[in-house]
């Protein structure tokens, strides 16, 4: 690995690619695995493209499934980067400042997954240009889906370009100029809230679906996102701490843990509030909740999932709240996986599927994703992980190199 | 067949337009009719001239505008192309209309809950008239069998399969209610679905991207998605079609009841109202004070389904 500084776009890109690919056997196996999973996903998507969405488990009654469930969840993961950005840039927290770019990388990966999930869910993906204003027709402001397209692509641009500028400056041995990027950082803070609220409004604005037509949906999205998202970021931090020589201060784990606990507790309070509303006075509109938690008319495929999710949610929250190991990475990993999985189930298909059951005509069916559908989903997830790796590995090298060359800087970027 | 496909290869984008499979399903239909010889004639016989013409037409179809932005000339041109494509791909002579709404007409529908006996002749007529997919047994209309005292289809049985009428049961039909304040229209991200001036909520199948947000938004379950390519045997295809109505759909697009736009704009009744043996279905012009629908609305006790959602459907129920 040369450390002689070079200049220009070409050198920047080629160095980034080189740093991305550099790694031992374990890393090579990891990369190969991701590529294989992606390849299988591409094959499965080819089948779907040829035959139509009939190869999935979806139907006219449950018309959104695994794809939209994962989309919804990963919007939350993307939004959660704000939990690093806010303290790093607004409160000038030095610990967070050192690692904020990693959070932004995770956000970009999550957004790539979101956009891919939306695309694979389309019946006519090659007609997506119908949405582009100018050559197509963009039903804005009426359709919330158009709002979602706007906020997601805007957030992707903000989270892609700001770190790119900062890293590019570091690469060229320059201190990034504050006024050039800080306005965008502040914008991205509001934008992060917006992407998740708008995604919630997508469902919340449908009186046809009583399970979603609930004013708590948006706030609850935020609370669960600010628990699950930082949990993902924590997993990435632990992986970096264990596998690379990039220093991650233990303070960061303490602070991240505090954020997760607060958000997870608020999330659980809201969950309890929802359960009370649904089951204290059981109405016609509570049938979806009945289907989710206890089963309806003999259909109960979601019941084991949702109780597992709630158990993992509570377990994860408790593990984070009462940490006897004082931030032992292994312990935190278990807690993070537990909370992440719980929220993933609950806010993924635990939220989307019951919205469709019972149907507006009172019909109850079950949904089981097909194996091709699962392979496509795994392919998208692998793509997201590849993007995160692709972004973070060179970023770490650049950050590290800059700190070594400029020891007068107490911490990167401060 | 392989040969033809290879020729199409350079124009892959046009080929992607989902018509490949309709051609396949067409071939299947032909083979069922055991007319292997004529199949060879239709597909192979015309050779490269036909396939390049087909590719060109598909290309032009792919880049056309939303129906509402087309001039009358453009509407005529696309209808002409679609007729020609039906000939090339399926060997069918169809007549496709793009007839505009008639002035001073607003369609309304009323359903007599007392009279309906659940025979489902309306369903069968609708399937035939609108070229609905036979493979997945798509239905725009559903009839629910209800117990007395429960005037709500969600409590009924929409899958009954027995002799009707059954003592002490009554029947309620549902379909797209053509809401004035339609949640589906608001939801669509590309303006591919809208309400025509005569009150019919239509879908531009060519403009629909298949996101299914409208389906999630509809409180009446009035929309159907093409999860795969619809299959209609060639000899059963209704060739009298409308651009916004019963023309053949394909995988990945939304469809729904259009009050049989291809019939009603020519002054006929929708197929369901026409087929009903009990006279439970009343259809007409709400703006015509002498119409039967106006009589029903003025003289019968009418109600609408899920009125609390403020959708303002153009579909009423009434009792004798």
Layout of helices and strands:
The complex is a heterodimer of chains A (414) and B (320).
Chain A (H helix, E strand, L loop, with lengths): L8 H13 L3 H27 L14 H14 L2 H9 L3 H28 L22 H28 L6 H27 L12 H27 L6 H31 L6 H7 L9 H19 L7 H19 L1 H7 L15 H35 L9
Helix pairs in contact in A: 1-14, 2-14, 3-5, 3-7, 3-8, 3-13, 4-5, 4-7, 5-6, 5-14, 6-7, 7-8, 8-9, 8-12, 9-11, 11-12, 12-13
Chain B lengths: L1 H7 L3 H4 L3 H14 L3 H10 L1 H16 L9 H19 L4 E3 L9 E6 L8 H9 L12 E5 L23 E5 L8 H5 L5 E3 L5 E3 L9 H5 L5 E3 L14 E3 L11 E3 L4 H4 L6 H5 L5 E5 L6 H8 L1 E3 L11 E5 L1
Parallel strand pairs in B: 1-8, 2-12
Antiparallel strand pairs in B: 2-10, 3-4, 5-6, 7-9, 11-12
Helix pairs in contact in B: 5-6
What are the salient characteristics of this protein?
heterodimer; A: 414 residues; mainly alpha; Formate dehydrogenase/DMSO reductase fold; 14 helices; globular; B: 320 residues; alpha+beta; Alpha-Beta Plaits; four-stranded mixed sheet; two-stranded parallel ribbon; 12 helices; disordered N terminus
Structure description:
The complex is a heterodimer of chains A (414) and B (320). Chain A is built from 14 helices and no strands. Chain A is mainly alpha-helical. In chain B, 33% of the residues lie in helices and 15% in strands. In chain B, strand 5 (193-195) and strand 6 (201-203) form a beta hairpin. The N and C termini of chain B lie far apart (59 Å). Chains A and B meet through helix 6 of A and helix 8 and helix 9 of B.
